[in-house]
Amino acid sequence: MVVAGTDRETDLLRVAAIAREAGDPLDTYYAWTREWMTFPNGAHVVEVEIDPETGEVNLVNYTAVDDYGVMVNPMVAGGQAHGAIAQGVGQALLERADYDPDSGQLALST
Q1: Residue 74 lies in a domain
Q2: 50-100 confidence digits (pLDDT tens)
Q3: What's the pTM value of the predicted model, to 2 decimals?
């Protein structure tokens, strides 16, 4: 870890040791309380073309809009969005995924 604009640096293990010596908890999971609920929203729209003779599917356009709120690290959020898109496309085109027709929830395939 480097302090921007200086020649000062340390490693992550040293930072952890300093925090431990100061008595600060490193794991705040159990101490953290949620004051406000969050409800992320998003929409993904995909345009596909399907060859009626071969069944080949081509993704023509893919548009995704997500409300992330305040992002601590936009690069990580972007990577997660790309991963979610890849997983969704793979599930839709390459895996058997059954959804409950009433609730829209993913159902266990039998």
Answers
A1: yes
A2: 999 998 999 999 998 888 877 888 888 889 889 989 988 888 888 877 888
A3: 0.50
**CA nearest neighbour of 79 among 91, 66, 60:** 66
Q: Residue 81 is part of a domain; what is its CATH number?
A: 3.30.365.10
Residues 76 and 82: their CA atoms lie apart, in Å, by: 10
Q: CA 24, CA 20: separation in Å to the nearest integer?
A: 6
Total domains present in the chain: 1
For residue 86, the one-letter residue type is: A
**Sole residue written with tokens 């990580």:** 76
Assign 79 to helix, strand or coil.
helix
Residue holding tokens 């729209």? 45
Query: Is 96 within 8 Å of 107 (Cβ atoms)?
Result: no
* Backbone φ and ψ of 104, nearest 5°: 80, 5
Separation between Cα atoms, residue 69 and residue 42, nearest integer Å: 11
If you compute the radius of gyration of the chain from its CA atoms, what whole number of angstroms results? 22
Please report whether residue 70 resides in a domain.
yes
